[in-house]
């Protein structure tokens, strides 16, 4: 494949995709409006963390196949991988997509292929990208080809999943889809399924919405279990032995830039028919407050009025360094609103500009009346409670991810509780 690719947006998706193509022998030019990120990448430095990215970036730059700048260049293929966040009122912000598309218009030449990778509300290709691309003097489907090829990779395993996951590719015309498939075949070993652009847009948003609704269901079950003397984690484990049941796990809320965001695209698109989807979003967004209230009642139970809480985990999920939409941060804010003093520790987060001071594990837990685990980092699962210097009598522990070994913590003298555990040993009265 001798095509030259220009990738617009060098974040969590654009950069790994760029180095994958470059290391497969394709000439790739990466573009980002963030000048600092561009300079770092040009110097083989990472502005994001991802397993395996550093060595792949080194190889891509050293081979001469990967160059970067802040403006697009002429190319045979353009891949747009810029953010599609939501506004404070939960409506989609498609300005980055529109601007990125507009930025390539002066460079697009006959025969070019333009691919959108970002997750977007259905009809974005049609209503946001195509009007910009029509400003060229080219005809879409004849001498300008456009498609949607949404990424489906999970942070932490991006390279493995870029290669092995199936892809859904939606073309504005069937030929657009075929050309896109031929391009991704450069490194994709999973199947590439072809459809139209709007279907591909809906499929991607549906996948993340399925997960959000399923997690909301698990969170609702967790609250119910607390009232009837059942450990929901055990109940879900049993239910999932059924061959057609796959209930997700409860927790302190849903974070990240995908699952907590994409369902809102469907709510905005068709509010009357997105009732369950909307309610699930609200249920998951309500979990941090639920955890904070639970913490408050645990402190009340101990008769503590000026309670101190240690939060273990700031990242939005285990073993990543990503704080985006993290429920841990919302738990901290909700605790502070209740007048509770909070300290925190996260082994994966180096710098925090958040509402809590980032401390060592020892400093975060030393004075705590209650320790809340909010992120399922492997480090926490392996933590030995005997090594912690804490108050006497020992603080309460609230495990919102079913991560800690109850026996170990109880043997070390801690009073252990779990979110969604109403079983006689877990129940709080
Ligand atoms: N979570 C739960 N319970 C669960 C699973 C997850 O509370 O049973 C929470 C996590 O703790 C986290 C949040 O949900 O706060 C989201 O984490 P995640 O691992 O489910 O998803 P992301 O956001 O890292 O990645 C998702 C993936 N989508 C699906 O699995 C359907 C990924 O494949 C997508 O590429 C990515 O969104 C994206 O970019 O859209």
Q: Any overview of this molecule?
A:
The protein has 429 residues and is an alpha/beta fold. It is built from 15 helices and 13 strands. It has an 8-stranded mixed β-sheet, sandwiched between helices. A 5-stranded parallel β-sheet has the order 10-9-11-12-13. Strand 11, helix 14 and strand 12 form a beta-alpha-beta unit. Helix 1 crosses helix 3 and helix 10 packs across helix 11. It is elongated, with a radius of gyration of 24 Å. The chain starts with a strand and ends in an 11-residue tail after the last strand. 47% of the residues are buried. The site of ligand SAJ has 20 residues, from helix 8.
- Report the sheet with the most strands, covering strand number, pairing sense and barrel closure: 8 strands, mixed
Helix/strand-derived class? alpha/beta
Domain tally: 2
Low-confidence regions: none
What value does the average pLDDT take?
Answer: 95
What is the H-and-E element order? EHEHHEEHEHEHEHEHHHHEHEHEHEHE
Work out the radius of gyration: 24 Å
CATH superfamily of the largest domain: NAD(P)-binding Rossmann-like Domain
Overall shape: elongated
Residues in β-strands, percent:
5-15%
Ions, cofactors and other bound molecules: ligand SAJ
Helical residue percent band: 25-40%
- Can you count the beta strands? 13
CA distance, first residue to last residue: 67 Å
């Amino acid at each position: 494949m001798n095509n030259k690719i220009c990738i617009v947006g060098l974040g969590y998706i654009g950069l790994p995709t760029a180095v994958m193509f470059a290391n497969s022998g394709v000439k790739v030019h990466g573009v980002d409006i963030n000048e600092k990120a561009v300079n770092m990448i040009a110097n083989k430095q990472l502005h994001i963390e991802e397993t395996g990215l550093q060595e792949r970036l080194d190889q891509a730059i050293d081979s001469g196949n990967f160059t970067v700048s802040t403006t697009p260049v002429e190319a045979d293929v353009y891949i747009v991988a810029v953010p599609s966040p939501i506004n404070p009122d939960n409506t989609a912000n498609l300005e980055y997509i529109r601007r990125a598309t507009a930025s390539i218009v002066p460079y697009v030449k006959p025969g070019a292929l333009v691919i959108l990778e970002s997750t977007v509300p259905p009809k974005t290709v049609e209503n946001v990208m195509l009007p910009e691309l029509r400003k060229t003097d080219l005809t879409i489907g004849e001498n300008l080809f456009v498609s949607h090829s949404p990424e489906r990779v999970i942070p932490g395993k991006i390279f493995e999943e870029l290669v092995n996951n199936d892809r859904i590719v939606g073309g504005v015309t069937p030929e657009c889809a075929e050309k896109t498939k031929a391009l991704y075949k450069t490194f994709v070993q999973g199947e590439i399924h072809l459809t139209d652009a709007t279907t591909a847009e809906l499929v991607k948003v549906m996948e993340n919405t399925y997960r959000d609704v399923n997690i909301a269901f698990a969170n609702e079950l967790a609250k119910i279990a607390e009232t009837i003397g059942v450990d929901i984690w055990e109940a879900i484990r049993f239910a999932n032995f059924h061959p057609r049941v796959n209930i997700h796990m409860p927790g302190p809320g849903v974070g990240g830039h995908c699952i907590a965001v994409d369902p809102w695209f469907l709510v905005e698109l068709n509010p009357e028919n997105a009732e369950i989807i909307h309610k699930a979003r609200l249920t998951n967004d309500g979990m941090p407050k639920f955890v904070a209230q639970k913490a408050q009642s645990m402190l009340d139970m101990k008769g503590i009025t000026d309670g101190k809480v240690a939060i273990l985990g700031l990242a939005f999920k285990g073993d990543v360094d990503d704080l985006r939409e993290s429920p841990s941060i919302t738990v901290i804010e909700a605790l502070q609103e209740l007048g509770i003093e909070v300290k925190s520790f996260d082994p994966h987060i180096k710098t925090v500009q958040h509402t809590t001071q980032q401390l060592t594990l020892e400093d975060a837990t030393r004075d705590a009346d209650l320790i809340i685990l909010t992120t399922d980092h492997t480090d926490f699962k392996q933590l030995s409670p005997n090594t912690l210097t804490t108050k006497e009598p020992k603080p309460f522990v609230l495990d919102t991810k079913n991560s800690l070994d109850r026996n170990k913590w109880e043997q070390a003298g801690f009073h252990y509780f779990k979110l969604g555990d109403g079983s006689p040993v877990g129940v709080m009265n």
